[in-house]
Amino acid sequence: MYIDTHCHLSLEDYDDIDLVIKENREHDISKIIISGYSRDTIKEALDLIDKYPDVYATIGYHPSEADITNESDLIVLEEQIQREKVVGIGEIGLDYHYGNENKSKQIELFRKQMEIAEKYNLPVVIHSRDATEDTINILKDYKVIGDMHCFSGSLEVARIYINMGYKLGIGGVVTFKNSNLYKVVESVGLENIILETDSPYLTPEPFRGKTNSSKYIPYIAKRIADILNISVGEVAKITTENACSLFDLK
Ligand code: NI
């Protein structure tokens, strides 16, 4: 049994969501956590958690939304996170990849959502791209735990996050031939890892280039099992326990 702790499931990317859910079940994916990251995708995620028993959500405003998110969105968010199957806040964070002209807006949005997470004692799902130093400095200010979604940094950075109570979200990148992520996986061990696809993006080998889906989680698990020289069953068991404990899933 596996849990995909971070994916996006939208009609924009998939014609038939019933089919995606059916295929997940056939591939031993017991739960998926959809990340709603904008007004529209948050609404979509909330609809899907009502429709499917194995679907959960984290919701929050992505840094790409920093220019268009306002105070009332955050008031609504505070109501939306009360829903039973909303298990965390995210993805939230910082993204300076395409420039950082709106850095102060991104930081403000990030901090406000960290405050909400702290107030309601919810874990966060962090998106951090080309912004490691600022991300670390902000996370330090809050008594919050969470998931470093799509972690791809150095071992040194991994250890800083782990010491603050964060798990590393490991996905398709670990299967890429040019990736050094295996070194981090090898060193931090299974107890600090949760599995994710970030579908429809970052499809693992041998399907790289196709649309990603939660059903490919076993390929990520297999690669991690090979790196750690353990069975894939062990990877499934421990990463599922980690996910259940972080997101308080039954
Ligand atoms: Ni994502």
What is this entry, summarized?
The protein is α/β, with parallel strands linked by helices. Helices cover about 40% and strands about 20% of the residues.
Throw out a few tags for this protein.
single chain, 250 residues, alpha/beta, TIM Barrel, eight-stranded parallel β-sheet, 8 strands, binds nickel (II) ion
Written overview of the protein:
With 250 residues, this protein is of the alpha/beta class. The protein has one domain: Metal-dependent hydrolases (TIM Barrel, Alpha-Beta Barrel), CATH 3.20.20. It is built from 9 helices and 8 strands. Helix 8 packs across helix 9 (232-247). The relative contact order is 0.15. The mean pLDDT is 97. Bound molecules: nickel (II) ion. Nickel (II) ion binds next to loops. Residues 6, 8, 35, 91, 198 line the site of nickel (II) ion.
Topology:
Blueprint: E1 2-7, H1 17-26, E2 29-36, H2 39-51, E3 55-59, H3 71-80, E4 86-95, H4 103-120, E5 124-129, H5 132-139, E6 146-148, H6 155-163, E7 166-170, H7 181-188, E8 193-195, H8 217-228, H9 232-247
Helix pairs in contact: 8-9
